[in-house]
Amino acid sequence: MSLVLKGCRRTEKCRFWDSVRKPGLMAALLSTVLCAAFLLCETAAAADDQDTLTLKGPDNTSFVFKKVRVDGGTGPLDGQIFKIGGDSEGSDGYKNPPTAVVIGGGFKDSQSRYYYMGAYEITAGQYKAVTGENVKSPGDDYPVTGISWFQAMNFIDKLNQYLYEHERSSLPTAGVYPGFVRLPTETEWEFAARGGNAVEKTVFDNPYPYDDENEELAAYEWFSGPSSSHGKIQKVGKLEPNPLGLYDILGNVTEMTTSVYYIEYYQGRSGGFVARGGHYLTEEDELSAFKRTEEPFYLGSAEKGMKPNIKPTMGFRLVLGSPIQTDNKAIAEIKKAWAKHRQGAGAKMPAALSVADTETQESVPAGEALKRLESISQALKKAGLYDSLKNEIAGTRGALQDMVKIRRKADEDSAKVWVKIACERGMYLYQNLKMLQFFKEENAELYKTSENIQKRAEQHEYNIKSGIENYDEIMGELIKLPKDLVLEGFAAHKKKIESKLNLEMHSQDKEAEDRRKDLKTQIAKIDITKKHYLDYEKAKRSNSSGWKKDYLK
């Protein structure tokens, strides 16, 4: 049965192979066999098909898209906040700094808003069918490369014109407006590359969205080396897809986006266009969902001249999007929702926070307000207006100073509580991890034969899974507090446990040794929990795999 299901899961790939080739006897036979396999597991595949959209293109090609759902609601201004980017440490930290962004979807149903991402990279065969242009390629089933961003735009324009003429009824709509194909934004690309809402947050935060720690990355992505691409471009769709059903998204070829490059994503100087992901010459340890590069629109020199940027390692995939202000009805809905959005959920989004007052904008502490008040005082003195307002300024300064003290004390108390909770949760994870290790590794033979032991192991696995999720939430609360207070909290908590240990050193009852052993373990794990906080504070992301390994050391 497992073989049938596996075959069924791959039928979409094989329909794709047929779509990019001229029909022939082998294709017809293969299609017949795979359709039979598909019928055997039609029920199992039904849910997947609901999230798949296939559009017919010219010359017997087809374009497969996967639905990418976005949380936050179905209103015209609703969206989901997530952190784009990765590690911001070191000299290369500027390449992908972690940054809060909001993603929305051009389409909606009763469940959520969503957009469609191409399941495969555009192939040489598809490119030729749409544009009539031949490109250098090992075959029609390989990603199209050696074309410029402008040629990709030309392909998109021609494909949209074809779809509007021949596939209008198959296109999703926003109101009455039909969707259109385009390059993804880098926000859309990374959200999908991380697995979107098809994975848990702790998996979403990983460099790639494959939760099985025993699974080789080579099962999902093409990268440099003998364990993967052998330094050669590969056919699309040969490996396993990511959790959203997207093939080769992190490797094989780097993918163009419609986004202009900014070092900090949406602020500062603008440059070339953003290309996302790695390719068949990228090292395995460099592959990630946050990998991004700036690509100039043109390459060359003043002496030799400038030409559009083309590379043998760069291609693209498509998304289906829609306009926002599609008609008067859509504009009326936006106007109606705007005030409530800006004062409600939208007030917590980056755009609103960037212009919020000091009371709303949590990132502006009262200490900064005191500095601003001092600047105002100096300006008033220069203007000769200070004396008439000095009592009001003094009162304001006193109120702000009190606010600083009150907030500082509140943060200090909160840090102590959250540190204690984090350390206790860390001990909980350690105990469950040790018990699971005891059952599955140290008593492997008994684990295989004892149903009772297997059930106990399953309970520990559940405890670890829920514990990791809670641990991630606790770390998220800790990084909202001043770092110095959190570190003081760890020091105070460790000192408290060490004091308990000193008292126990004088105990003589028969349980004393067990209590001393437990306290020593707690002290050792406090340092691990502190390390996890410092790592989380830098990366702004969880590391569930690393956390588990640390607690088992």
Task: Tell me the layout of helices and strands.
Elements (H helix, E strand, L loop, with lengths): L1 H8 L1 H9 L5 H16 L1 H9 L1 E5 L5 E9 L9 E5 L14 E5 L3 E2 L4 E6 L5 H8 L17 H18 L6 E2 L2 E2 L1 E3 L3 H8 L7 H4 L49 E7 L12 E4 L15 E4 L2 E4 L3 E4 L5 E2 L3 E3 L6 H16 L6 H4 L12 H17 L3 H57 L1 H6 L1 H28 L4 H22 L7 H28 L4 H9 L1
Parallel strand pairs: 10-15
Antiparallel strand pairs: 1-2, 2-6, 3-4, 5-6, 6-16, 7-8, 9-16, 10-11, 11-12, 13-14
Helix pairs in contact: 1-3, 2-3, 11-12, 12-14, 12-15, 12-16, 15-16
Radius of gyration: 28 Å
Q: Mind telling me the CATH class of the largest domain?
A: Alpha Beta
Count of distinct structural domains: 5
CATH homolog superfamily of the largest domain = paralog of FGE (formylglycine-generating enzyme)
CATH architecture of the largest domain: Alpha-Beta Complex
In whole angstroms, the N-to-C terminal distance is 40 Å
pLDDT < 50 stretches: 1-47, 358-365
DSSP strand tally: 16
Please state the structural category.
alpha+beta
| Portion in helices | 40-55%
Q: Describe it for me?
A:
- The protein is 48% helix and 12% strand.
- The protein has 553 residues and is an alpha+beta fold.
- It has five domains: 1-50; 53-321, paralog of FGE (formylglycine-generating enzyme), CATH 3.90.1580; 328-364, no CATH class; 367-403, no CATH class; 409-552, no CATH class.
- α11 (366-382) runs antiparallel to α12 and α12 (386-442) packs across α15 (483-504).
- It starts with a helix and ends with a helix.
- The model is unreliable at 1-47 and 358-365 (pLDDT under 50).
